[in-house]
C-alpha cells in the first residue's frame, strides 16, 4: 500500500450520535467538552453531535438513517426529511471548517456501538493509507482490536465518514441501544486517545514504526434473512451462529432456524461473519455480513 506519509492532518473531529440511540458517542462528546481534554493538542480536535434530535428521542433516526444520507443526490438536493437536511448541514460544516487548500486534511472519528458481539472494531471505509496505518497503530497498542475494511460496501460511500478522505469508525459491542456500559465507554476513550496520538505524532514527523502488514477483515457480502412472499421473517439467527462474530464460518454450518424447527445451513465459501443479528440491520434485511480475513500491506 503506497501512500503519502508526508501528509499532515490539520484537524480532527470526533463525531457522536450519528445514530441517536447509540449513547457512547454523545456522552463521550459531553465528557470531552466538559473536561477540555484535547484543548492543548497540537492538532485541533473538535466534537460534533451529529443528530441531536434523534439522540433526544433515543431513536436511531427521525426519518431515515443519517449514516446512509451522504449521497451526492442528497447533498446537492432539497429533500426535506430531517436527516437529509442534517446531512447537508454537516457537509457544509466540514467544508467551512477548513480553508480550501486544507479540505482534504480533516480526519473524522465516528463513534458507534452495536448490539452484535463485535468487541472493539475499527472500520476503515476506503484504501486511504493513513486510515489503515492509524487503525494498525491502535491494534498494535490494543491487540484485541479488529480492523474491518469496508471499501466494497457501497453503503459506506453514503456514510458520514465519506465526506472526508480521512477517518475511521469505532464500533464497540455488544451493547443494547440507548444504554451506556462502563467497560465499552473506557475502551472507546482509549481508542480515540490512540488515534489522536498517532495523528499528532505523524504531524510532528515522529510516526511510530508499524509492521509491514496488518490483518484485516475485508467485506465480501451481506446475508439476508429468510422471508416469505409477503416479506415476513421465516427464520431467526441460529443459536450456533449467535455471538460468533469474527469466527470462521464453514460451509454447511447452521445459520438460521426456521419457526417450523428446520435448520438452514451456510452454502457459500467459508468466511468470517460480522454484525451477526445486529438489531438495526433488520430494517436493512441483513442477518450478518461475510468477510475475508486477509493481510493488508502498510508499506
TrEMBL record:
Q: Could you say which cofactors this protein requires?
A: Zn(2+)
Q: Which UniProt keywords apply?
A: Hydrolase, Metal-binding, Zinc
Residues involved in Zn(2+) binding: 19, 22, 112
The entry's cellular-component GO terms read: cytosol
Query: Residue ranges of the AstE/AspA barrel-sandwich hybrid domain?
Result: 213-293
Q: Which residues form the Succinylglutamate desuccinylase/Aspartoacylase catalytic domain?
A: 10-198
Q: Which SUPFAM superfamilies match?
A: Zn-dependent exopeptidases (SSF53187)
Cofactor-binding details, from the entry: Binds 1 zinc ion per subunit.
What positions constitute the catalytic site? 171 (proton donor/acceptor)
Q: Which GO terms describe its molecular function?
A: hydrolase activity, acting on carbon-nitrogen (but not peptide) bonds, in linear amides; hydrolase activity, acting on ester bonds; metal ion binding
Gene3D superfamilies from the xrefs? 2.20.25.160, Zn peptidases
Q: Which family does it belong to?
A: Belongs to the AspA/AstE family. Aspartoacylase subfamily.
What this protein is called in its record is: Aspartoacylase
Native organism:
Endozoicomonas elysicola
Amino acid at each position: 500500500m503506497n501512500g503519502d506519509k508526508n501528509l499532515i492532518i490539520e484537524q480532527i473531529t470526533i463525531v457522536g450520535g450519528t445514530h441517536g440511540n447509540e449513547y457512547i458517542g454523545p456522552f463521550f462528546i459531553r465528557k470531552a467538552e466538559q473536561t477540555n481534554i484535547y484543548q492543548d493538542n497540537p492538532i485541533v480536535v473538535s466534537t460534533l453531535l451529529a443528530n441531536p434530535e434523534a439522540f433526544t428521542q433515543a431513536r436511531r433516526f427521525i426519518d431515515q438513517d443519517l449514516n446512509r444520507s451522504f449521497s451526492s443526490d442528497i447533498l446537492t438536493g432539497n429533500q426535506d426529511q430531517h436527516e437529509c437536511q442534517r446531512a447537508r448541514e454537516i457537509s457544509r460544516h466540514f467544508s467551512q471548517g477548513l480553508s480550501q487548500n486544507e479540505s482534504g486534511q480533516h480526519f473524522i472519528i465516528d463513534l458507534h456501538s452495536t448490539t452484535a458481539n463485535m468487541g472493539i472494531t475499527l472500520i476503515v471505509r476506503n484504501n486511504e493509507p493513513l486510515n489503515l496505518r492509524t487503525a494498525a497503530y491502535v491494534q498494535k497498542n490494543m491487540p484485541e482490536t479488529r480492523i474491518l475494511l469496508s471499501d466494497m460496501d457501497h453503503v459506506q460511500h453514503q456514510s458520514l465518514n465519506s465526506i472526508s478522505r480521512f477517518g475511521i469508525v469505532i464500533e464497540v459491542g455488544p451493547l443494547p441501544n440507548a444504554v451506556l456500559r462502563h467497560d465499552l465507554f473506557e475502551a472507546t476513550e482509549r481508542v480515540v486517545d490512540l488515534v489522536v496520538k498517532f495523528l499528532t505524532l505523524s504531524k510532528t514527523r515522529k510516526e511510530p514504526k508499524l509492521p509491514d502488514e496488518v490483518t484485516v477483515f475485508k467485506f465480501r457480502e451481506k446475508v439476508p434473512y429468510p422471508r416469505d412472499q409477503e416479506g415476513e421473517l421465516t427464520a431467526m439467527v441460529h443459536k450456533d451462529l449467535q455471538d460468533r462474530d469474527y469466527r470462521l464460518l464453514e460451509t454447511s454450518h447452521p445459520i438460521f432456524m426456521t419457526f417450523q424447527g428446520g435448520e438452514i445451513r451456510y452454502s457459500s465459501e467459508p468466511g468470517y461473519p460480522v454484525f451477526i443479528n445486529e438489531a438495526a440491520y433488520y430494517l436493512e434485511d441483513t442477518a450478518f455480513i461475510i468477510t475475508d480475513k486477509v493481510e493488508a500491506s502498510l508499506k
